[in-house]
Amino acid sequence: MTTGSEGGGHGASGSADAGRVREVARATNAVVTWIDPPLPHAADGPLAGVRVGLKDNIDTAGVRTSCGSAFFADRVPDTDAVVVSRLADAGAEMVAKLAMSEFAVGLTTQNSASGPCRNPWDLDRVPGGSSGGSAAAVAAGLVDLALGTDTGGSVRLPAAACGVTALRPGEGTVSSVGTFPVCELVDTVGPLARSVPLVARAFAVLAGRPVREPVPTVPRRIGLPELWFDGLDAGVAEVVAAAGQVFAAAGAELVPVQVAGIGAAQDVLYTIVYLELLELHRDRLADPGRFQPDTLARIHLGEGLTEGHRDEALAIRTEYQQGLDELFADVDVLLTPTLPVDVPLAVGVDDVLTTTRRLGQCAAPWSLHAGPTLALPVGRHPVSGMPVGAQLTAAVGGEDLLLDAGAWFQECTVWHNEVPPCSVD
């Protein structure tokens, strides 16, 4: 096992020069620990030969799992997380632990004990978060597949920022045992890769299902939710609308819809999450200096909340989910942006609370949903040239429908094949 950017023998593409791997790993700071040799794994299986990186809140037996925090700098689990065992049984080679926002709290991956992570498309910009290292490592070719965790968008937002594909599985579909939580009620473990077929294979393995190759299919009816906040970036709106037209040109009906309760969804989610987050870290608050400042600021948001607030939020969540169930009786999927803005620069952004709310505006509503959301790269921003992502959301149990739709879109487009300047490819 080696730490940071100085390893990388197994984490690199077989054709990549080891020096280039180290250069890319150092520039992005996406890798916290190289696992060399890889964790024990089956000799064959549906993921044989696939190089996997794991967000550093996913337990790996005998390999440090720090959660991006000084509190866990020397934490070495005795057992693998369930998702790690499933990947190993499928032949995957676990080669790296990846950078993350401390305790998975943050949407930029700048608040980490291992230092800030950078976006391989532009090293002056953030990779999204909290699974920023997962998305950056996939985009840069340091790994083929990565696992992240998603509470309020932490798999989908980095995927959008780094131009890769990611799935937030439906509630309870993939085990979180052995993964350090943020809020167990809404936490998920999800796969990231450059394209849908590998995400689909990984999802099947993680969920304990037979592996099924996607069947590229155009959704019949795609709901376009009425915008529920002010200030969607014009370039993002343009690119996502163009993605919708790709589906429409193949016969999909684009249907404007209203999602009941979506305007309050982010506040409802944050009420549920921040109260549980405070309880999770209450004992550690006795030593506040060991936290990253941005992490501490968000944990403190739970201090004004009560069980009464949580009960009210859970009741609203139930009503919101019922409304979505009714909506999905009329449309197959919903299409929305993933990030509401261009990918932010790493310096000069607003304070952490403002940034969190802004970056999470499009992702948070689907974290209250019990069903799945697929994040796809759908173009480049007309001003910056950075990746732009869209989300497809389906009813409970709709993972295969999403993967089929995403596979069709990627057969018709090239965005998932584009490689960033900082890459081993």
Brief digest:
Helices cover 31% and strands 15% of the residues.
Written description of the protein model:
The chain is of the alpha/beta class and 425 residues long. It folds into two domains: 2-207, Amidase signature (AS) enzymes (Alpha-Beta Complex); 221-408, Alpha-Beta Complex (Amidase signature (AS) enzymes), CATH 3.90.1300.10. The chain is 31% helix and 15% strand. The chain contains twelve helices and twelve strands. The chain has helices spanning 18-28, 82-89, 132-139, 156-162, 196-207, 234-249, 265-281, 293-299, 307-327, 352-359, 364-367, 399-412; strands at residues 2-3, 31-34, 51-55, 93-98, 145-150, 165-168, 188-193, 221-225, 253-257, 333-337, 373-380, 387-393. The chain has a twelve-stranded mixed beta sheet, with helices on both faces. Helix 6 (234-249) links the parallel strand 8 (221-225) and strand 9 (253-257). Helix 3 packs parallel to helix 4 (156-162), helix 5 packs antiparallel against helix 12 and helix 7 packs across helix 9 (307-327). The longest helix is centred in the C-terminal third of the chain and has 21 residues, at 307-327. It is globular, with a radius of gyration of 20 Å. The two termini are 24 Å apart. The model has no long low-confidence stretch (mean pLDDT 96).
